[in-house]
Sequence to fold (191 residues):
Amino acid sequence: MKEKIKSIIAASISVKQELLANETLQNKIAEAVEVISIAFDKGNKVMFCGNGGSAADAQHLAAEFSGRFYKDRKALPAEALHCNTSYLTAVANDYSYEVIYARIVEGTGNAGDVLIGLSTSGNSGNILKAFEIAREKNIITIGFTGESGGKMKTVSDYLFNVPSKDTPRIQESHIMIGHIICELVEEKLFG
Fold:
């Protein structure tokens, strides 16, 4: 059992070491920090979406902005788009689960907003549809995926494709990248 535990920890560290060595990814993180900071500075919002564990991660990261990260500061307009269960179940029932995020982005998204989608495969249909609507509305899209980037690779303005095919390792790195972005945006906006 202890060897299995060590093996899992080592696998997580290995993925993060690849990210640590990836200057392109680090530059993209810096760019995302800039884009998100500008959006907040101009009064725009950041929306998050995901499915399953990625929905939980989306909600977690939205809360880091709307609540706080390290600093006591004003709340930033960020939300996870799946938190209104009445909306979610009505649209899934009346239309399709595929459009749950697209409809809310269409209804509440504005040019200059940022939409962050988390999908380990990069192929979540409801996130892809939301990104398509976002593009039509001049909303910046940031994709968090696994190694291949999936279909999100072509619809993301910024893509963080974690170098792994293992869902838990990908999600662990999504949270790490998200935390880095939250910390640096907070520093940039609030000193």
